[in-house]
Structure formats: C-alpha cells, structure tokens
C-alpha cells in the first residue's frame, strides 16, 4: 500500500503523521522565534554601518542553522537525544543536562501548539491541499505570535511571505477565490492603517505597528475579505479580555504597550478552522 493510499484510507494515520510533523516543526519554530529577531537586528546594524561609511567587527556566522542550539546558561550543545519534541523536555525534568539550569516551558508549549494545530488541520480538512495550507498558516501564526510577545515586532520575512502564499493558494480556490483574496489583502491592511492614523491624530501616539497591518492583510489574503469583520471582532475581544486581566491581576500599567499580533493570530486561526460556520450562525440570527 502506498503512503498516499494509506493517508486517504486512514484518517487516524494522517492525523498521527501530521501531529508528529507539527511537533518537529514546532521545535524549529522555537529556533525561528529566538533567532530571527537577532538575525534581523544584525542585518540592520550592518546596513546602518554601511550607510555611515563604517564597518563592524567580524562576528561568527549566526543564522537559523548555525551555530547549533545550546544552553544559554552554560553553552552546552544540545544533542539530538536532548532535542526530541516534548519528550526530551520531560525526560530532562525541564532542566539542562549539563548545568541543571531551568529550561523555559515555552519551548514545549510551542511544540505542542504546532503539533496540535497540525493534527487538527489534518482531521478538519483530510488528505488535501487545504490541510497543507492550514498547517503552513498555523505554523506562521505560532511563530509570529511569540515573536511579537518577545519583541513587539512582526517580521516582514514571515508576514509578507504569508501574504503571497495566501494569494497563491487563492489561485486554486483552496480557502477562497483570488478576487476575495486580493480585496481581503488590501482591506486588511487599509482597515488597521486607518485606525492607526485616526488614533495618532486623536492622541498623538501610535496605537499599533505596521506589522499588524501586514498580518491582517495576510489573513485577508488567505481567507478572503468576508472573514475580516470576524477576525477584527475576535482579536479585539480577546485583546480586551487579556488586557483587562493583566491590569487587574498582574498590575500591568495601562500606559504599557501590549502586542496586538498574538490576538490577530488567535483570531486568524479561529477564522481559518471555523470562520464560515461562525459567520453562518451569526447571519442566521438575523
């Protein structure tokens, strides 16, 4: 029996494979979340130095592959057996095998999210291009959400690639057709762009970053303009609930910024898997 026939005939095998694939990708997403902002910062410094006519001292190669992952406390190189998604974290007791420094639980959380979303995509869409697209979309959302939490930045390397990939899927009508996708990309960007300038003119402050515009544009490209009201409503609701909870329970200062990207990512994932059903139920009420 071929692999294709196996996955077509056994949903359980497909879900299991995609779950394991998602766990492996989640391990790589941890690298992307940690290193991509630093890679971009190095690039910006080099570009600034070039414009200023100066040069920076040579540094070791640093990208998504090199150097090998290591413990930030003692520099111990992470071996293959110590890098098995979820399993290694629990076998090591959440600590470095060399210095016993605590490993952040966020690493297994990212792996678990990527795995669960991948398995759910396979269960939701079956053996299809839609399942592949849903996994790509989900992985990008996980990476963007955690990068924004860390840095208040949504890298163009991911948001713009996500936008163009969404338009490519729309060429084949996977989640939406090309016309709604193009309108969704434009509308997604312009809606938050307009909110940004209205808020800035009213208060003199910037309420959000340009990365948020691009992320909503990418969601519009994947799912079409019809889904944007739901995404905006859901992200605003989740953001308001979390923001109030932080102020009340964590004594977060009202003047302190809160990244909006994670809320857009959560809303985008809900819309991806259940947006049509939610819209249909909402319209049925009227």
How would you briefly describe this protein structure?
Helices cover 69% and strands 0% of the residues. The chain contains ten helices and no strands.
Description of the molecule:
By secondary structure, the protein is an all-alpha fold. Helices cover 69% and strands 0% of the residues. Helix 1 (3-9) crosses helix 2 (11-51). It is globular, with a radius of gyration of 21 Å.
Tell me the number of strands.
0
- State the secondary-structure class: mainly alpha
Radius of gyration: 21 Å
Q: So what's the overall shape?
A: globular
How many angstroms does the end-to-end distance come to? 50 Å
- Range of helix content: 55-70%
Looking at this protein, list some descriptive labels:
286 residues; mainly alpha
Indicate the topology.
Blueprint: H1 3-9, H2 11-51, H3 87-91, H4 106-125, H5 129-151, H6 156-171, H7 178-203, H8 210-223, H9 228-249, H10 261-284
Helix pairs in contact: 1-2, 2-4, 2-5, 4-5, 5-6, 5-10, 6-7, 6-8, 7-8, 8-10, 9-10
